[in-house]
């Protein structure tokens, strides 16, 4: 599991496969700066100091432009670490939270399942 | 001769399948039409063809539409928009599925506003003859209808004047930083008897803060929150009461990060309603009367 290190706070957490930087931090009890948690608002955008991340979910160019990615910025709510990473979350402190993770999707009336029938 | 209501909101989404899951299964809207990369949806208590369009690619607002009465309103608005100096063009039947000829105006805030009176009638899911109060088999929240949108603009005073002079809206509530026109921070405006049909706050031009669905009451709002938890929908804030409009609210995000709201209650306005003023020192109470505190980012986060 890739390790996520947050500077300057020096917080280290493990990211599960497919888990975003924000979700890994939340699972470990840390709330970083974010708003929509869905890659749309861009509030969480910060420098990726070390390592590589992947974006399994599409991210709008207007939120994180290719040039911004090239210059070392990332979107922690959608960025999934593929190596150990170091992200610089700036001066704002992390807030300690008890956050519940997403539940597995269940139910029988979902569109995707209906379409699959 | 008047604007009737917010008819549709057309938004961009990064992933159409995930957006459909949210708008159809979590909110409970019905798809009525599909074309390449777009889904048109209707809520169960809406008569007209659609109220939300999802378009794959990006985030944010493509445009929004307000329905007007068919007695020469479009001509009158076109004349007034041109004399205001706003650019407008006629739109044709078929530009939007189910919607007839109309007028497309670029607002002083760069948003694209479409006005139309001719739209395909599909009817509510309970019909017009001895109807049940709600249809069986609703999915998720089961939103009955959309209600309003809040956008951002560099010049709230100019946009307020546009809505007042060109579209005959009136302000119900105004958030002000001082006595000058340039001190207007936000305005909540109506065209019928709601507390707001459009609202805007100071911010970047062309951006969407949120669009809202109306639900019956506070208990429907809390139930909506239950469904959001079941489906792990990110909550911005709520359930809470707004000071401005007195409505109940939960703000939440769709899978692309566009902000939605479920909204309940609010008072009634009308042509003789005198506007309410909020000062900046009480802005947090105006937005969240319950908690009297909002994150600085709340007004700034837009798509």
From TrEMBL, chain A:
Q: Which GO terms describe its molecular function?
A: 2 iron, 2 sulfur cluster binding; metal ion binding
Q: Give the InterPro entries listed for this entry.
A: 2Fe-2S_ferredoxin-like_sf (IPR036010), 2Fe-2S_ferredoxin-type (IPR001041), 2Fe2S_fd_BS (IPR006058), Beta-grasp_dom_sf (IPR012675)
* Coiled-coil positions: none
- Name of one Pfam family that matches: Fer2
Q: Give the matching SUPFAM superfamilies.
A: 2Fe-2S ferredoxin-like
Q: Does Zinc appear among the keywords?
A: no
**Into which family does the record put it?**
Belongs to the 2Fe2S plant-type ferredoxin family.
Supply the name of the protein. Answer: CDP-4-dehydro-6-deoxyglucose reductase
UniProtKB/TrEMBL annotation, chain B:
The UniProt GO MF terms for this protein read:
catechol 2,3-dioxygenase activity; ferrous iron binding
Q: Any idea where the VOC domain is? A: 5-118, 145-265
- Enumerate the UniProt keywords alphabetically: Aromatic hydrocarbons catabolism, Dioxygenase, Metal-binding, Oxidoreductase, Repeat
User: One of this protein's Pfam families, by short name?
Assistant: Diox-like_N
Cross-referenced InterPro entries = Catechol_2-3_dOase, Glyas_Bleomycin-R_OHBP_Dase, Glyas_Fos-R_dOase_dom, VOC_core, XylE-like_N
Gene3D superfamilies to which the protein is assigned, alphabetical: 2,3-Dihydroxybiphenyl 1,2-Dioxygenase, domain 1 (3.10.180.10)
Record family assignment: Belongs to the extradiol ring-cleavage dioxygenase family.
NCBIfam families under this entry? catechol_2_3 (TIGR03211)
Q: Subunit structure of this entry?
A: Homotetramer.
- Specify the protein name: Catechol 2,3-dioxygenase
The protein's organism comes out as Umezawaea tangerina
